[in-house]
Specification:
mainly alpha, 2 strands
């Protein structure tokens, strides 16, 4: 690097730049302070670009990249509404036809797959730093209706929500509630209840 004041050739380290946003190129003007290295050579330190536009292009690029990866959580919530409607319709038909015990595996698989997808969307939103996130109550609701296996898999595989004590406490209460509900539905009293609802069974 050549000093404009005395045409002295100065040595510098990239690590001595105040900002790490960009590397200098031929023709760039720099501001710096003079210092000496261990050998007594005059070197430039505390370097900055004179052109302010070059101070933080990487940061702007990262922000632009994050914006391009913005997760549309409104879309996810709209899909959630459609899923709830379809799930409730399927559950109602299973009750009316008296086939709920047979339909339980299908309902659990559907709820688990959808819950896992919701966790993916919320995790992606967290990665790009979105302030808006999916409500935790919504994630717990889908776990309660049968999606807890998918939620548990997402927590482990995506490393999402598993370190939040309050969320985990609520999650395992939801799992316990779901398990007790299923045990009751499969019991004699539950079967009698399902039988009374099975208006369309033969």
């Amino acid at each position: 690097m050549t000093c404009q004041h005395n045409q002295q050739q100065l040595f510098f380290h990239i690590r001595d730049f105040v900002t790490k946003s960009a590397r200098p190129e031929i023709g760039d003007e720099l501001q710096f302070q003079l210092s000496e290295d261990r050998s007594g050579r005059t070197i430039a330190t505390q370097l900055q670009f004179v052109d302010a536009a070059k101070q933080a292009p990487a940061k702007a690029k990262d922000k632009s990249k994050a914006s391009s990866q913005w997760i549309d959580l409104d879309y996810a919530q709209d899909i959630s509404l459609y899923f709830r409607s379809g799930f409730l319709m399927l559950l109602t038909m299973a009750l009316l036809f008296g086939s709920l015990p047979l339909m339980l595996p299908i309902l659990y698989i559907e709820a688990s797959l959808f819950t896992y997808w919701l966790y993916q969307q919320d995790k992606a939103a967290a990665i790009v730093g979105q302030p808006k996130r999916l409500p935790e109550e919504s994630l717990q609701l889908y776990s309660f209706i049968g999606g807890w296996p998918g939620a548990l898999l997402a927590q482990r595989k995506l490393a999402h929500k598993r370190s939040k004590f309050q969320f985990q406490r609520e999650f395992w209460l939801v799992v316990a509630g779901n398990a007790m509900l299923i045990v009751w539905l499969l019991s004699q009293h539950g079967q009698e209840f399902i039988g009374r609802l099975a208006l369309l069974s033969s």
